[in-house]
Automatic annotation (TrEMBL):
<dbReference type="InterPro" id="IPR001647">
    <property type="entry name" value="HTH_TetR"/>
</dbReference>
<dbReference type="Pfam" id="PF00440">
    <property type="entry name" value="TetR_N"/>
</dbReference>
<feature type="domain" description="HTH tetR-type">
    <location>
        <begin position="13"/>
        <end position="73"/>
    </location>
</feature>
<dbReference type="Pfam" id="PF14278">
    <property type="entry name" value="TetR_C_8"/>
</dbReference>
<protein>
    <submittedName>
        <fullName>AcrR family transcriptional regulator</fullName>
    </submittedName>
</protein>
<dbReference type="InterPro" id="IPR009057">
    <property type="entry name" value="Homeodomain-like_sf"/>
</dbReference>
<keyword id="KW-0678">Repressor</keyword>
<keyword id="KW-0238">DNA-binding</keyword>
<dbReference type="InterPro" id="IPR050624">
    <property type="entry name" value="HTH-type_Tx_Regulator"/>
</dbReference>
<feature type="DNA-binding region" description="H-T-H motif">
    <location>
        <begin position="36"/>
        <end position="55"/>
    </location>
</feature>
<dbReference type="InterPro" id="IPR039532">
    <property type="entry name" value="TetR_C_Firmicutes"/>
</dbReference>
């Protein structure tokens, strides 16, 4: 009985992975709104009933993919968000290294998501993941230390900067390595904009 359940689970995982890969491939060829369930099932060589056994429609499929990928990113950032001062102007902050390595590893996914124009608002969801990670990080700062700007402003500024650079980096085919761009963010975080310009 246990082996039967494991085989069923493996089939479910394989089928979903096949649908996911097919969906991403189609998104590299045409706009999301132009993709139909028929396109997905024909290219994945599965029946429509098989597709609907896993997803309600293409919007549900997209939601599940985004949810899974951002959940992975969130978990990785949480692990790298532990107190760690072993970074400086020459050693990248592990938090930024983890972030950019995760984006690079899932380059095709993020490239398609940044291009997509749909009701799911991927950028907004990614924004919230990044902002929450920064919020956790800033909350670990000494409570006695007074911020020179309001916390909400600091969170919005940090999040928008990271998201904006990520989008451009992905759209430009990651011309810098994850570690290189992570080091630049580390330097900006340590020195600030004006001090960075003086160096």
């Amino acid at each position: 009985m246990e082996n039967l359940e494991q085989n069923i689970d493996r089939r479910i995982i394989r089928t979903r992975h096949m649908i996911y890969e097919t969906f991403l491939a189609l998104m590299s060829e045409k706009d999301f709104l132009q993709i139909s369930v028929k396109d997905i099932t024909q290219q994945a060589n599965i029946s429509r009933s098989t597709f609907y056994a896993h997803y309600k429609d293409k919007y549900d499929l997209l939601d599940k993919i985004i949810e899974d990928k951002l959940s992975i990113l969130n978990e990785l950032l949480a692990k790298s968000n532990l107190p760690n001062n072993a970074w400086n102007n020459e050693v990248a902050d592990p938090f930024f290294v983890t972030y950019f390595e995760c984006i690079a590893k899932n380059y095709t996914f993020y490239k398609q998501m940044f291009m997509i124009k749909d009701p799911n608002q991927f950028s907004t969801k990614l924004y919230h993941v990044i902002r929450e990670s920064f919020s956790i990080r800033f909350s670990r700062i000494d409570k006695e230390r007074k911020l020179s700007v309001p916390l909400d402003f600091l969170l919005d500024y940090s999040t928008s900067s990271l998201l904006g650079v990520t989008k451009v980096w992905v759209e430009n085919h990651m011309i810098y390595s994850p570690n290189y761009i992570a080091l630049q963010f580390t330097r900006l975080s340590i020195n600030g904009i004006y001090h960075t310009m003086k160096k």
